[in-house]
Fold this protein.
Amino acid sequence: MKHAALSLFLLATSFQLHAAELTVQVNDQAGNPLSNAVVYLETDTKPSRNPLVEANIDQKNKQFWPFVSVVQVGTSVNFPNKDSVRHHVYSFSPAKVFELKLYSGVPAKPVIFDKPGTVILGCNIHDNMLAYIHIVDTPYFGKSDVNGIVKLTDLPSGQHTLKAWYYATVKENFITEQKVSIKNNETLSLKLETHN
Amino acid sequence: MQFKSLKSRISVIFLSLILVIQVLSSIAIKLSIDKNARRSVNQQLEVGERVFLNLLQNNGESLSVGARILAADFGFKAAIASNDHETILSALINHQSRINADIAIFYSPNQNSLVISENLSESEVSEKISEVIYTAKSDAQKNNFTIFKNQPYQLVAVPVKAPLTIGWVVMGFKINNSLANTLHKLSNLEVTFISQAGKSPWHSTASTMSVSATEQIVKYTTDQHAFNTSSNLELTIGDVAFGTRYVSIFKNINESLYVVLQRSIDEATAPFQVLLLNFLILSIVGMLIFIVSILYVSRIVAQPIVELANTARKLEEGDYTFNVDTSRKDELGKLSSAFSSMRTAIADREKSITKLAYWDEMTGLPNRASFMKELSNAINKSDVSHEPLSILVMNLDRFKQINNVLGHDFGNQLLHAVSIRISQVFRKDNDLVARVSGDEFAVLLPATDANIAVNIAQKLLQAFEKPIELDDNFVDITAGIGIASYPVHSNQIEQLLSFAEVAMQVSKAQKSGPVVFQPSFDVGSNVNLTLVSELKKSIHNNELSIFVQPKVDLKSRVVTSVEALIRWRHPTRGMIFPDQFIPFAEQTGLIRDITLWMIAEASKLSASWLEKGMSIPIAVNISARDLIDSDFPNKVAEILKSTGSNTSLISLEVTESSIMDDPHRAKQTLLQLSQMGIKLAIDDFGTGYSSLSYLKELPVSELKIDKSFVMHVEQNQNDRIIVNSTIELAHNMGLHVVAEGVENIEVWKSLQEMGCDYGQGYYMTKPIPACDFEAWYQQWTQVPLIYSTLSPNSIN
């Protein structure tokens, strides 16, 4: 098994103070666009926006969908089972330990993720099923698309901390952070050192 | 190699051959067994290695299964999540016992958690467990080993995923006796595990071998610097050689674990040894069968040859009586047939040769050689039985005469007839009749002493009293028979025969039937030598005297002459007849003195008679010795002169045989004597070998026919013919004829009829002493013509 070094580079910072937008380009060490990277901005002040009431993580074709989710603390997450077989979803992650014993359809209660951190989801029936939920304590977050681009909007101006998490960094569960000053619409490039 | 027989040669060659084959094949088999056994051991070791690896693989899989089951257990994961050590440990022990594993460990690097089912120090385990996990991460299939506290373990590490890896479950088996025994059961190999950890010495973990054997393996291992695990080696432990294979189980910088697989080569060869033993037993049995067969075969081949060799030896010894088996059809049979016909041919040839050598063809009797051989055999038998034996020698009288007059064919026929007559007398089984020379026969009489032999001889003579008839001729056979006996006379065959011949000569001379040999006959004997010396003195001692026998004119009865005969009055032996000493005198030459003495005495005697008015000449016998003495006539002349006699008063008689000794000189002497005026007569005519034609040349005036022809002249036709023809021939030659042996008047008459001139014999008188002659003469002349009436001629 190869170990790859992880490093994050902040290539440029430029944003507007109010209703500013931040576009972040996430690349891996080799410079290739990295998808499924979670990028969020923590502000000094309490976030003004409420979290989304609910989020869904489907089980389809014996896979979790989406593979990586990012939610704000306090968010209820539903785990609708869209397969014909039953699943037994669990997490032994300290951020949220829970299990949904063999069920089909949508469980009666959603799971509320009330602590920031990373939750690794597994299925006791299907060892191959794996999904990550990163819980952040800020309303400003996003997940990179296939081009490695994350767009954060409605950002307050000022000095903030930009953080990035990727499920397969060389240093496990490592969160890359850097200070950013939000003024205008800014574009940022982030480089993350990842597994493979 | 030298063989005494074909049989042993065949046997030895084939036996050696089979022995060599057996030995070579035994060696080859032995080598092959060893090679195969080692190859088989090597194969077993290689197979053992594979079995062992397979066993490890299986163990690994069963460990893996056990560990996976545990790692997948949701409760176990929950316990890990809650970091509940006690629960983790109980789960480890539970799953360890499910698969009979020896050790179970949970290790979580993230949580820095280590749970061990066995009593091992955490520090030692944590140090090595990461290595085990590292190995498992790189290749989950690879067998994983480590050594905890000198105890090697086979380990399997399985990650616990929730769903990412949150820790590792490690399960393991001890590399111990149980594993060794399992492998031993599977592979039938001896198994020893040896390990080395750090700087501690090599150490045996487990073994199916004895403690001492294990120690030796450890020692051997310690002595080695490097192990060749790709090939096998041979290790001798105790007295047993083991095929040995080192298999490396694991090895890192400071730890090594090997399994030593071993197989006893002896054990591997054991089944082959049984095979070899069986082969040897079969070989020995085969050899025995072969020995018996080859002996039998060689006997079949050699035995007939041995028999033929024995046959040939018999042939060599002259035994032709055996039979040769010619029933075989093979080459040996042909050889046997050849032998058989050779035997027959040799026997036939020898028979004819023997016949020639030992058989007289004319008479069909054995010859002299055969007689001598038989005599020799008979003497040997006689020695064993201590019985005497005797031989007769018979010599026909006048045979030469008969031969000359009647021809050789007649003579041969006569001999044949004589042989038949002799043979008729004797016992065919015991007595052997042989013809030993021309007219001489010999008879061998076993178990017969001289006295009985005389009787037999007389019987033989009786058998000849009847004349033999041949071609209408009747032949009267008279013969001299001499007898000599073994062992009294001699113990040498030649001498015995010669003594019998001497006796026969005496018999002929005496004409008195069979004569047994006396030592006195033998000139060479001591007695006779004494006699010879005495004879020399006898003349001077005046022991000799003269007897006379008158010759009478058969017509006129007038005494015309007398024959002087010598007698020896021996001072101790008495009267000795000339037969007994004249032969010696002739041999010694003394005869010449005797002859001269006789002539002197005779001339004196005749002179004395003349003075008395009896003009009767005296005839003196002279010997062969005298005839060859050229001075003899002079000596005679001197004697006559000294005695005052004259040649008319003396006549001399010579025998045919004495003339024939040296006819030329005899003739000279006789001529001289004749010229001196001395009358000469041939004595014993018919017994010698002279012929009338030869006598014609001699200056003789008278012929004396031997008495053997005369005695039976009136009965025997042949004698009559011989006498008659002799008279006629003599007369034709101008000779007077004197017949000796006139024993009766019939003979006289016959002779007179045949024209014989004079007669001499017992009828007139036997020889009388000279002094008695005058008396006889007076008596004879006083009775003149006493038988004249019987003779017509005598009347005139």
Remarks:
- Chain B is about 55% helix and 20% strand.
- The first strand of chain B starts at residue 103 and ends at 108.
- Residues 539 and 597 of chain B are 8 Å apart (CA to CA).
